[in-house]
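Bumping my old thread because nobody answered last time. Still need a sequence for this structure:
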């Protein structure tokens, strides 16, 4: 049974709904290759468990030097058993490289023969991925000018509008918006609210956003007097309703628990999901895509999804993306909310990571699904191959696609969004 389900899942193209990858038109913003794989922030955090180098001395090194330190600490002086380390090895092996030699210069040499555009196709093919959704922030000084200048889009790269600065550091965001020609002040007056909506409309249209997204710390609450909750209610949710877009909430990240680790310095905290319950109940016309970082929030999230059909659960985010938790969380979700879920997104920051993130997750999803089919078969309910294909399509992007369609949208409109 497992082999059959694995084959069906392997043949089903994936729509990866959240990554940090970029359309190749963004040039150097699209990361790929061995050095970028090695300096991934998951590995930086793990390497510092072994390194006794002061943080500042690490950060002044070149990317190649950092990669060498990490390679030595995590692959040569210790066996690469962590999920992020294993991922590098899975990826290299899938690319056809001989990992047994432990030869970093030879690995580097192999990557020099590739051009980004062709390598995108190779990685998507090896990962079984059809489309990837980027994370697009107008507040990113490197990314913004590329959108403003315009470029011809690679259809495989979809866009999502990331608005963390707007909701989390409103004072600074207001100054940015004012600089960019929006008539906003620090207070949320009617004028400011309508100007921030104009900003969202401009950027949503410019990038062709499929959804809006934000990450929240464990302290996020709703309703509340703070600017975050007020902007969410008065600006973001009305914008989502007007444009028929879902809002993605990634809950439970404690930013910069150790700022010396820079991008690797974020941690986790338990969220109060009462805030999400109130959002789902108070705004039935809005649709919420939600993932939680705390393992202890996973069960409550599934229960909430049973109560609110405007809530779609997705992904085993970040520290949850390890085999033991992906298995546990996927099983829990299938048992509580069936196939109305998107069990995984890759969160890839480096193109090549699509290969391991999806190979590892797909195998676990197949195992969980095969167990469920076997339980059913015990009663005589044998799931046909066509039904398996239908289920696999749902889990790997279909359920997400359906959830994202505005209710009552015409079939022409639905097709346009595919
Ligand atoms: O906020 C996010 O989208 C997170 O996924 C990232 O900030 C995080 O750094 C990451 O890469 C996790 O996988
Ligand atoms: Zn992410």
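Sorry it took so long. Here it is:
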């Amino acid at each position: 049974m497992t082999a059959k389900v694995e084959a069906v899942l392997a043949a089903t193209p994936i729509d990866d709904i959240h990554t940090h990858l970029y359309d190749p038109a963004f040039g150097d913003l699209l990361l790929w290759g061995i050095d970028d794989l090695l300096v991934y922030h998951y590995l930086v955090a793990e390497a510092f468990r072994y390194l006794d180098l002061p943080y500042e001395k690490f950060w002044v090194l070149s990317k190649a030097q950092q990669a060498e330190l990490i390679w030595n600490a995590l692959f040569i002086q210790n066996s690469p058993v962590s999920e992020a380390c294993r991922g590098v090895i899975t990826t290299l092996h899938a690319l056809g490289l001989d990992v047994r030699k432990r030869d970093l210069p030879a690995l580097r040499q192999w990557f020099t023969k590739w051009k980004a555009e062709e390598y995108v196709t190779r990685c998507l093919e090896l990962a079984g991925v059809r489309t990837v959704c980027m994370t697009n922030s107008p507040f990113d000084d490197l990314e913004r000018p590329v959108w403003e200048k315009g470029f011809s889009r690679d259809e495989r790269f979809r866009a999502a509008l990331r608005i963390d600065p707007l909701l989390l550091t409103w004072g600074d965001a207001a100054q940015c918006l004012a600089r960019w020609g929006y008539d906003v002040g620090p207070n949320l007056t009617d004028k400011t609210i309508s100007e921030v909506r104009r900003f969202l409309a401009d950027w949503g249209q410019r990038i062709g956003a499929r959804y809006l997204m934000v990450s929240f710390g464990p302290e996020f609450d709703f309703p509340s007097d703070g600017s975050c909750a007020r902007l969410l209610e008065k600006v973001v949710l009305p914008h989502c309703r007007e444009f028929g877009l879902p809002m993605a909430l990634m809950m439970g990240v404690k930013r910069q628990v150790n700022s010396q680790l820079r991008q690797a310095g974020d941690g986790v905290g338990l969220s109060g999901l009462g805030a999400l319950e109130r959002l789902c109940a108070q705004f039935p016309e809005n649709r919420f895509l939600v993932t939680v970082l705390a393992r202890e929030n996973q069960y409550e999230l599934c229960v909430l999804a049973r109560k609110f059909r405007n809530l779609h659960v997705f992904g085993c985010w970040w520290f949850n993306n390890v085999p033991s938790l992906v298995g546990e969380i996927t099983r829990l979700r299938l048992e509580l909310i069936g196939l109305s879920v998107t069990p995984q997104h890759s969160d890839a920051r480096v193109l090549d990571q699509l290969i391991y993130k999806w190979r590892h997750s797909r195998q676990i999803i197949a195992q969980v699904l095969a167990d469920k089919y076997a339980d059913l078969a015990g009663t005589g309910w044998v799931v046909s191959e066509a039904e398996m294909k239908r289920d696999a399509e749902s889990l790997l992007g279909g359920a997400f696609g359906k959830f994202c369609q505005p209710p009552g949208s015409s079939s022409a409109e639905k097709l346009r969004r595919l």
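The CA atoms of residues 43 and 84 lie 7 Å apart. Let me know if any region looks off to you.
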